[in-house]
Structures are given as structure tokens and as C-alpha cells.
Write a structure and sequence with these properties.
Strand content: under 5%
Length: 204
Amino acid sequence: MKSPGLSNKPIASCTSATCENCPAGNTLHCHFSRRDLMYFLFIAVPPFVIGGVGIYITHSWMLVPWLVMIIGFFGFIEIRVMCSHCPHYAEPDRSLRCWANYGSPKLWKYRPGPMTLMEKVVFWGGFISIWGYPLLFLLLGLQWFLLIVYVLFCAGFFIALRMFFCSQCMNFACPLNTVKYETRRLFFERNPDIAKAWGADIKA
């Protein structure tokens, strides 16, 4: 999908000359915009704020390990195991320009195709560790109200993520991706190198 205000220049991996009349354009979001980033932060930030408050109330100094985990995972580890498979990673910028990991440095090699089993284990392990960390302190501190609010906001974040972002994301390698097969096939037709990496049959 071409976001408002962006040019018709396709992404680096695409062989089409223009985005006009792209059959996948209404269902797949190939271009980044700052509006996308704002929408993502709107649903992603509240759980972190609530979780951070819960940790601070129980043991304020334990915020430091959590912040290190967040920066290390989302800024570097997740980029390697998941984002390096994304077509956004093939763009010429030195840092990522996408709604979820905007500004993260591209330290790794671009590797189109699906994630390995170990990469998925690391991906899910990071997610569980980061979102599970505040739960420990909310339980230890008997902060039942904050615990309920935190769980609700986390659930809301993942539901919104899957419905409004993952359903349009061109990183098919991500375990959270929900783009339908037909849309993927249309994308593969215009991105043959990615299709080859996936071993995809792009025939209609």
C-alpha cells in the first residue's frame, strides 16, 4: 500500500516501474510513513509505561535491566533474527525505516526468506522475557490493579498489532504476520528474488 504523500517509486526489491495499479496495493503496506510510526507507538507505548511504573514501585533499580533488555532486543537482536528478512531491510538507508523498529541500525546482512527455527526461538524468547518481566514485579508487589491494567493493555496491543499492522506487513517471515496467501503471491510476482528465497510458486 502506498501511504499518502509518498512517491510512486517501488521498494528496492520490486521489479515494477511504478506502484500505480499494483494488485497488492490495497492490502499490502510496502511504504513507511511517520503516520504509521505514530499509530504503532500509540498502541505500543502504554504497556511499557504501565509495566515500568509497576517495576519502579516494587524495586526501582530493577528498571535498568529491563531497559537494557528492551534496547538490546528491539534495537539489535530482533533486527538480526526477524527484521533482516524484511524487504524494508533491502532499502539503501543505513537504518530501518519501518513502523515497528524505526531508526535501528542495519548491522546485519539482508537475508530474504523465512526465519530459521532458532531465530523463531530467540524471537519468542525475547518477547516473553520483555513482556513477562513486569509481571514478576507486579505480582511480588501485590499490585493487582496495575497487573490487570497491564495485562489488558498488552492484550490490546497484540490484538491491534495483528489486526491492523501484521495483516498488511510485507515481512512474511515474522511469526506474527497474517497476510493471506493470495496477497503474498501477488507480492512475489513483483519481487522475484524474494520469491526465490522463499521457494515460492508465483504462478496464478
